[in-house]
Amino acid sequence: MTQPVLTSAGESLPLPEGLPGIVADLSSDQRAFKNVPWGKAMMWIFLLSDTFIFSSFLISYMTVRMSTTEPWPNPSEVFALTLFGQKIPLILIAIMTFILISSSGTMAMAVKFGYEKNKKMTFILLLITAALGATFVGMQAFEWTKLIEDGVRPWGNPMGAAQFGSAFFMITGFHGTHVSIGVIFLIIVAIKVLRGDLDHQRPGFLTGRKGNYEIVETMGLYWHFVDLVWVFIFALFYLW
Amino acid sequence: MAHAEGQQHPVAHAGGQQRPVAHAQGQQHPIGIYLKIWGLLFILSTASYLVDYFHFQGYLRWFLIIVFMLLKAGLIVAIFMHMLWERLALVYVIVVPPVLLMVLLGIGALEADYTFFTRGVFFVKGLL
């Protein structure tokens, strides 16, 4: 690929807005998504496909839950935890929700400091995000252990409908995998930021593309998506 | 190769959209907006937890859970993922396909009702 020749043909034309803008962008030459680096557009399209995967899980969960004649185990009681001698319903899940939302907040700020080329703050915030994500996965492991000890299996459980176990392990397992992968990539991006790879435009390990701070935002999109999926799981699986 | 990648298109400010910090590159917004949204997400999460804690039931529970869920999802996509400031072409390409999932959702619900009904008729005495 060669560099486009910059001629003095004047400034680029203003892009139309609104519905004509959508038509103009999608029918235009070379690139449909103006103003965004292609890495970001591709991340969005990946996230869209991931949305369909998670939606398939949630829709099939809804279908089995609505059609089972056995009583569904009450999540409020199943996920209750005894703290300070009191049985608090769903408290572990609530804490996990707050942790994941906090990690989303720190991630958003990491993106901001990244574009300001504030290496130190970006690194610290990325590490905090990764730490919160790892805490989330740890708590999920604890939750799984507790449920498995209670006799919940993908094919049955002592509390009621057998589908509870399969839906639970499938949905939270897939989400937990996403969080774990996210934590790994957060650490990789944090190291890149600290080493100054993005300032000096060093190419990455897997790609010849030059490093820049847009990868922090792309990473952020993935991380916010993980949080977004949890919002739906929290509402539909735990609060239903 | 890929020399110009990641460079912002020169028309980043077209249309007079709000861009609090007027740099040509990337999505730059003041830190306050992220902190405010963070706070809002905390409040909404607490509210949806309290729905369970106070044992709201029936349509009220459903209504509250769905409203809080959609508000949280909307805030994350719009502000944290910067969809509010993207061009409409990207927004539509990403946001419209999930509408198809609503159709799948509807089909799933109808089918589940039907399955539940037939199971009730044939397998469970006295359910219906």
Explain this structure to me?
The complex is a heterodimer of chains A (240) and B (128). Chain A has 240 residues and is mainly alpha-helical. Chain A has a single domain, classed as Four Helix Bundle (Hemerythrin (Met), subunit A) (Up-down Bundle). Chain A is built from 7 helices and 2 strands, in the order αααββαααα. Chain A has helices at 18-26, 38-67, 75-78, 91-115, 119-149, 163-195, 214-238; strands at 81-83, 86-88. In chain A, helix 2 (38-67) packs antiparallel against helix 6 and helix 4 (91-115) packs antiparallel against helix 5. The N and C termini of chain A lie far apart (53 Å). The model of chain A has no long low-confidence stretch (mean pLDDT 88). Chain B is an all-alpha fold and 128 residues long. In chain B, helix 1 (31-53) runs antiparallel to helix 2 (58-80). The relative contact order of chain B is 0.07. The chains are: A mainly alpha (240), B mainly alpha (128).
Topology, please?
The complex is a heterodimer of chains A (240) and B (128).
Chain A: H1 18-26, H2 38-67, H3 75-78, E1 81-83, E2 86-88, H4 91-115, H5 119-149, H6 163-195, H7 214-238
Antiparallel strand pairs in A: 1-2
Chain B: H1 31-53, H2 58-80, H3 88-95, H4 97-122
Task: Report how far apart the termini of chain A are.
Answer: 53 Å
Q: Strand order of the main beta sheet of chain A, please?
A: 1-2
Structural class of chain B: mainly alpha
Please outline the major beta sheet of chain A.
Answer: 2 strands, antiparallel
List keywords for this structure.
heterodimer, A: 240 residues, mainly alpha, Four Helix Bundle (Hemerythrin (Met), subunit A), two-stranded antiparallel sheet, 2% strand, globular, B: 128 residues, disordered N terminus
